[in-house]
Specification:
Elements (H helix, E strand, L loop, with lengths): L3 E4 L5 H12 L3 E6 L2 H12 L5 E5 L5 H14 L3 E6 L16 H27 L4 E5 L12 H23 L5 E6 L19 H13 L8 E5 L2 E6 L5
Parallel strand pairs: 1-2, 1-4, 2-3, 4-5, 5-6, 6-7
Antiparallel strand pairs: 7-8
Helix pairs in contact: 1-6, 3-4, 4-5
Length: about 240
């Protein structure tokens, strides 16, 4: 039986490419996407490359879809080994803090933080049976002068803190699940309006970094790992001892 991974928001961008690269390595892909047509189109593209894949309807704004997916996967794919929390929204990337609408910040937090929280809680029992991994796609907590969208950065900072606290809790409670954040660097996708400069990476390169983390045998419990290409530039240890 092949290893199985669930990737949210995998109908396009870096999520799709992670699915493609893992699928090429023989993994069974559960492709999470909220839109049926886009999800099935992505599934067809991967199937044409010989990848074993199926669509899972998951909308981070609709907890019922998360709970249904968890129940369904527990029955049909109890071997689930990895959950990649890739789905997210950017918020208004052009707004300065004082110009950000409360509704925009709330919407971004609802998806990038609360939605992922619900996924982690729902899938931990399945992953624990397989000593699995949860990979949260994220960015460093500190912004920089090239990329500092307020709502998005706030939401990812909260996600990093949540990752650390889940990691601490899993360790203390002896829950056999490893959770960590993966930072692939700046990747040119539609989330950032296809930002392109000398610091940006291709989707293939960014996804490749994440795939290497998924397949490594190092313990990253509760950490946020920054890895560009095959070289680990920063490994931020934030788990309490």
């Amino acid at each position: 039986m092949s290893d199985t991974v669930l990737i949210t928001g995998a109908n396009k961008g870096i999520g799709f490419e992670i699915a493609r690269q893992l699928g090429k390595k023989g993994w069974t892909i559960l492709l999470g996407a909220r839109n049926k047509q886009r999800g099935l189109t992505a599934v067809q593209k991967l199937q044409e490359e010989g990848i074993v894949v199926e669509w899972m309807p998951i909308d981070l704004n609709d907890y019922e879809t998360i709970h249904f997916a968890a129940t369904n996967i527990a029955k049909t794919h109890p071997e689930l080994k990895v959950l990649v929390n890739n789905a997210g929204i950017p918020g208004d990337m052009s707004a300065e803090p004082m110009d950000t609408k409360t509704s925009d910040l709330q919407a971004t937090l609802d998806v990038n933080v609360t939605g992922n929280f619900e996924l982690i809680k729902s899938f931990t029992p399945i992953l624990a049976k397989n000593h699995g991994r949860i990979v949260n796609m994220t960015i460093p907590a500190t912004g920089n002068r090239f990329f500092h969208p307020f709502a998005y950065c706030v939401s990812k900072s909260a996600l990093n803190q949540m990752t650390m606290m889940f990691g601490n809790s899993f360790k203390a409670q002896h829950i056999p699940v490893e959770i960590f954040g993966a930072v692939p660097g700046g990747v040119t996708t539609d989330l950032n309006n296809h930002m392109d400069n000398r610091f940006m990476r291709t989707v293939e390169d960014g996804a490749g970094s994440v795939v290497k983390l998924i397949l490594d045998h190092h313990n990253h419990q509760g950490k946020t790992v920054v890895r560009f290409g095959g070289v680990k530039l920063v490994k931020k240890v934030i788990v309490g001892h």
